[in-house]
């Protein structure tokens, strides 16, 4: 038996065993699959629905204090701050836009050269 034939036989045996397991215990397999699907779809509940506008929330950079934890705030009630804004920050995100152009543009230049040219001085 060659390696490919043995591999093919092992894969066939694994599929057969899985099919036998599913046929022997259909209800637990269906329940487990349903729970897995629900667990994977749970983050979709936090997506905004069409028609709802984006929510903008900002904090001051100077004199920053972590938000207080509202113990009397009930889950599901609207409040002034977003649900995710609790406790001290764990990360800082900084976004930098670089606009550049290459002048004069020659026909032998690539689009990558637009970025490479201004950044070459930094490196």
Would you kindly provide a written description of the structure presented here, covering whatever features stand out?
It is built from three helices and no strands. With 123 residues, it is mainly alpha-helical.
What is the radius of gyration computed over CA atoms, rounded to a whole number of angstroms?
Answer: 28 Å
Number of helices: 3
What is the number of E strands? 0
Q: Mean of the pLDDT scores?
A: 80
What characteristic shape results from the CA principal axes?
A: flat
Secondary structure class reads: mainly alpha
Largest sheet: none
Terminus-to-terminus distance: 57 Å
Query: Helices and strands, in N-to-C order?
Result: HHH
Q: Into which percentage range does the β-strand content fall?
A: under 5%
The helix content, as a percent range, equals: 25-40%
The low-pLDDT segments are none
Topology diagram in text:
Elements: H1 3-24, H2 26-41, H3 112-119
Summarize the structure.
With 123 residues, the protein is an all-alpha fold.
